[in-house]
Every structure is written in C-alpha cells, then in structure tokens.
Amino acid sequence: MRGTGELWSWDAVDIARAVRTRLISSREAVLACLGRIEEVNPRINAVVEMRAEEALDMADAADRAVCRGADIGPLLGVPVTIKINVDQALYATSNGVVAFKDRVASQDSPVVANLRKAGAVFIGRTNTPAFSHRWFTANDAHGETLNPRNERLTPGGSSGGAASAVAAGFGPLALGNDYGGSIRYPAYACGVLGLRPTIGRVPAFNATSVERPVTAHLMSVQGPLARTVRDLRVGLAAMAAADPRDPCWTPAPLDGPSLFRPIRVAMSVDPFGRGVHPSVEDSVRTAARCLTNAGYLVEEVQLPRISEAADLWTLLAMNDSRRALLPAVLAYGDAATQHVLQTMLHNTPQVDLDSYTEGLERRTTILREWLIFLERFPLALLPVSMEPPFEQHLDLQGAEVMGSIMKAQAPLLSLAVLGLPAISVPTSVRGGIPLGVQLVASRFREDICLDAAEVLEAQCPIPIAQL
Fold this sequence. Notes:
The protein is of the alpha/beta class. It has a single domain (9-459), classed as Amidase signature (AS) domain (Amidase signature (AS) enzymes). The chain contains 16 helices and 13 strands. The strands form two sheets. It has an eleven-stranded mixed beta sheet, with helices on both faces. Strands 4-5 form a two-stranded antiparallel ribbon. Strand 9 (264-267), helix 9 (278-293) and strand 10 form a beta-alpha-beta unit. The radius of gyration is 21 Å and the shape is globular. The protein starts with 11 loop residues before the first helix and ends in an 8-residue tail after the last helix.
C-alpha cells in the first residue's frame, strides 16, 4: 500500500483498499479531507459548497457496508468533489451564476449517479467561471479561485476549482468537464492529471438545463482529475457506466487490443508553426526522453490538419455560443464573462447554415485522417498550451490579448473538436510555474494515454501543493 503521511494526502486507490480491509474507516478519510478543506480553502476558494454532516453520513454508510460484507464499489468511502455545473441531487447547479443559485437538481446527473454507485463520498462542490466559459475561475456567485501552486497564475478553467482542490489535497479525485480544454487546462495550470475521455465514453445529462447544442454533443465530456494515474483509471471506470439518459453513450471496453511494440509516438513541439514558449518546448522534449527511456519510439512529425481543426472549433463552438449561450450570458452573466464571450465572438465570423454544415462535414474528414494517422502512431505527444499558465485575469485585457490566448490554447481546441481522448500530464513545477504535456490516442483508447502517462508520472513526480 502506498498510503503514507497525512490521510488527506492518500490517493483514491489506497483509501478504497484501506476502507475495504478496515485498516481505516471512510469517516476517518473524510474527516481528514474536510479538515484540510477547512484549513486551506479560505485561501484558495476551490470548494464553494460543503455539507460536512451529509458527507460524514455517506462515509458512515460506506463503513456499515464494509461491516455487512455488502457488494463494495471501487470507490467505496473515497472523498470526491463535484463541479457546480453538474447536477447533484438536492444541490443547486449554479454554474457560477447568481441567478441560478436556486436551480436545485432533483436527481443526479448520470456521471454523479455512477460515482455514487461506485461508493464515492461527496465532500464538496468546486468552483467554475460563470457559465463555465473562461480559462480563469471567478464569478459573482462564489468569488475567485486561486491556484494553490502560485496565486499569481490562473488555476485554469472551467474546472479550476476541481484542479485546485486536487492539487491542494482536498480529495484525491474530482469530477470536471471539458468542452474546449476545461479539464486539461486546469490540470496543466495546477500541476495535476486531467483526463478528457472519448466522446460517448462517460454519460452526461443535466435535467436542470435545456438540451445542449450540437457542438456540445460532439465535443463536451465529463472526466476525472487526480494526482495519480491509477486514480484516473479507477475514476474513469466508475464514471463510464451506462445510463439511458445519454443517447451518445457507447459501450466500449476500457482496454483495447495490445499494440505492436515498440509503440510509435508522434511528437510535435510546435504543431502550429507559430512558435512555442521555450519552457513548453522543454517539457515536450523531456516527456519524449521519458517515453524513449521506457521503450517507446518517439518521432517528430507533423500532426494532420491540426491548425484547421483548431479553427474549426472556433467556427462551430463559438457560433453555437452566439445562438445558444450569448442571450443567457447577457441576461444573467457577470461582467467578466460578458466581456470575454463578446470579445471571443467579435473575433469569430458569423456563419450561415450552409457554412456551419460544411464545417461539420469537414470535421468528419479531419477526424478520419486522424484515425488513419493514429493507426501508424498510436500515441501523439504535444503541448497542452503553447504558453505556460496565464496570469490571473489575462483574458480581460482586450481583443488582441484574447486573440493571443486563443492561439496559445489551440492544442486544446483542436482535439476537443475531434472528440479524441487526451490527458494532461504534469512534468515539473519550476519557480512556482507548473508545466506539462498532452498525450492523445485514438477513439476509446484512453488506456494508451494512461499507460504513457504512468511513464511520465514515474520519471517526473509532482508533490501536493505546499500551503
């Protein structure tokens, strides 16, 4: 068993095993995490709603299940946080919006229901920007979340509260979601792991919300953030159970066929040919050396039509936002979210139905080329962002800066539009600045990403944030 040190610092696998074998109780694990939240959260504001007695009741129920010899889920007794834009029964799905503070869910979303069935104990709900529409986490409803590794830097967004909570030791596992980088970027900014599963892997549905636009069905996913790869594995397995409320859910196995070795890796340090920050380049090359040391065959190659894919995300997702999101943001959003969305839309040409439909058709063509490419190179290695984590509130500095941010985030957008699985893996924290890389595989081959992430985890260990 790996679990050493303070109980709040243990990973999910160790906690679950220790609860199952009665080495510790779930109550002890939950109390340790609640204590850590009480001590540190006032400084970083990652968890914005916590009902301690309810969490302890769930922990006690887990301990009774162990005593009865009942069927035990893989996360029995493990403290987990839930993002405030996901339905959790009897909690408000506020999505960081003041006007939605009373939008209380009557039922769990599919992913929350799956975590509950797996035995997870919900210890708190984590912050997000209003409407979950920034790579920075602040809103008028719950305030600003800080990065526990460096308060000058964004914790990322929109799952900034989730990543900040995991990095600070509030719980070993967090639920986030990713439409254009909202799991991977916060993981990058906070120096933790974040997995964006394949579209259709994890079921999603919020009864408190209207039906999502087309691009959300093609790009938006639910997924785990954690400090260890093995926690990502168990988190994904728990989250991915079937639910009839999501017609896009796909019954794909969690592990695919064995690959011919050595596994070829397509590395791209500067995939868009516009330049890359030296520290980001160094991170990618460091990861390449780690994979080479483990027997992977790393080759520097051009990734297929990746710039076009990033531009396609902007065309499709932002025009959906213009139609489906802008009216609500103008009516209920805070000033920062209104500014950011209007700035992004100002930089995005408005398209008609023919152009939108052509964009969807082009997406299929690009995805086909990627799937063929990933037959030759089962794994791709590239930056998460072309820049180190941004300073807080950088996106409020006008259209030109927003344009630079969008260019830097192109690696996140290009993979989201294609619906491919990708994982953000930390490689270092230098001078208080977290750095990492992105690993990508073919549809429903999260296992390939996770295997490679374990190599990087072993050679580039990242401690819990010291607070």
